[in-house]
Amino acid sequence: MSIVTAPEVLLPGEITSDDSSGRGSMETCRGFQKDIRLSAHVDHQALVMLLEYIYLGYLQAGDELAKKLRILAKRCNLQSLLQMLCRKRPKWGTAFPSVDLNVALGPSGHRFSDVILEAKATELLGWTCRVCSLPQPHMHSHKVVLSSSCDYLRALFKSGMQESHLETIKVSISWEAMVKLGDCFYSGKLPKPPSGCLWNIMDTEEKLHEIQPYVELFGLSEFWLMQDVQEACSDVIVSCLGSSRELSIKILHVAANLSVWKLAEVAATYAAPLYRQLCNSGELESLDEMLVEMVRAASVQLSQQGGNHSQ
Hints:
Pfam families: BTB. By secondary structure, the protein is mostly helical. The chain contains 15 helices and five strands. It is elongated.
């Protein structure tokens, strides 16, 4: 029995000046493989189940297979799996097994990176990469993780077209949105913005800064066919608009600039109760006629339904 795995490659600190772009480490990972041969006594099915647990965080096994898995779990020092197989109660404070690959975005995972996600231009001051000298904010990623998380990227990598061999994929979102996208890919969870008192003490511009990355991700998710991420972003945005309606005009403006019309309509709906107030204050003057009409139409619809307008 054998397993093909990645070789020993240069650590980030060992990359020479010739490899400062990060390409050297990626080419090394693609160019070599290491064949690990296991003992003939290692049961193939038990090994497959062990790898399934490592990648998915759970498994199902009968009594006979569980016995073989206990041996492997003990040898591999997988205490969480060993406890479950031995039917022991977990100790207080023990971390619950979950699939969280965020550590792969750190230094230990850079050696296996084979693709870079590059964010759009930003005004971030002092942004630097610990691995390469590329000045643009970017993330050293792994095609196997991206493929398993996004149908669009999986199709791109398998297409055989020129784009499928690119070492850098330019993504039209800010670095702040890129960080949240990385969390979605590597942990399966979308980070939430501050809530409660932390949210309430923010001014409108600070709140907008927190919410704008979710608007960007919503638009990208529609193009990249990531429905779960889109729904999660929508929930965050709607929740924030519900608690801070004064954000609605600003979110409407941002969504329209990004051509995210579904969110623009949602923002217009939340702005509808404030229509008269917005007209009197002159805030609608910052919008073009089409967006003003969206808010007006939402206000009329609210009035016809018997809704209350803010005075």
